[in-house]
């Protein structure tokens, strides 16, 4: 007698599921139609392979050629000429009286707060003396995040947020919200891509999807030689019903050890700007800047040249500057103590018979003692 038992007969109205192919097997198992489609795809690729093969080969050879050149990182488009800007007083000069008190609450992650006071400064083209202002700021930074915000006595809020996605990509956000409804707010979005021998930046100022307006800027800087870089900048302004686009070009040339750097920028409408920076000694830097604005009428053409000198003493930094418009200015930053800096600034305009004078102090404090700071490394935030 056999040990195997036969399956009971199926009831009426039932089907044998073993004779019906499952949906899963029908999807995974290619039928004759899918086989024909695969053959069609292969035939299509074989048909276009002679067209794409030279292009792929060209890109491969270019990549190998760039790796063989071992070109350096040129830096970002905006950083070009920063050495000359660090010598000149354009970003450092001030007038009136100001005080800045900052306190570090943490080193890693870096976190500090700042109180700033300004009073007695000239009110610009309107004349008179501007009233005193106060602003409170805070900064938080890690290796991936940099966040900074300030608010003044008029309730104007400004903020920055940078985020590092990886070794090559950084996204940035800047906001400015004025307290007055009549003053427009400013929003800036930016993304930077740093390659081995290039830098790409894409920016958007006040982009709006409602009226499709904004200012869009693309900057690209490429190293063509270990000592030479070439860059291009495109600006597209969309203000319905008007649109405008312009291009600018940049050249950067420096020595092998970067003890001198020269730049040349050809901006839209023919504006030319050139700068030259040189490190004369370990403590002395010099910089020259030239800006030429063309015009069809010779009398309307303008050219301004600026010469600056920076001297780093053991406990002080001196900056002096003179330009072709008759302005002479100087700034002294004296470090009286490790946490205390005293500043004196002055500017004299011989042509307009005007002068500016300013004094300032900067005080820093930290609740952490030297023992607590031992072994703590400050972060490198994305800037």
UniProtKB/TrEMBL annotation:
One of its GO terms (biological process) is protein import into mitochondrial matrix. One of its GO terms (molecular function) is protein transmembrane transporter activity. Its main location: mitochondrion. The keyword Transmembrane applies. One of its GO terms (cellular component) is pore complex. CDD domains: Porin3_Tom40 (cd07305). It is found in: Mitochondrion outer membrane. InterPro entries: Porin_dom_sf (IPR023614), Porin_Euk/Tom40 (IPR027246), Tom40 (IPR037930). Residues 1-26 are annotated as: Disordered. Keywords: Ion transport, Membrane, Mitochondrion, Mitochondrion outer membrane, Porin, Protein transport, Transmembrane, Transmembrane beta strand, Transport. It holds the Pfam family Porin_3. It is a multi-pass membrane protein. Belongs to the Tom40 family. Channel-forming protein essential for import of protein precursors into mitochondria. This is Translocase of outer membrane 40 kDa subunit. It comes from Austropuccinia psidii MF-1.
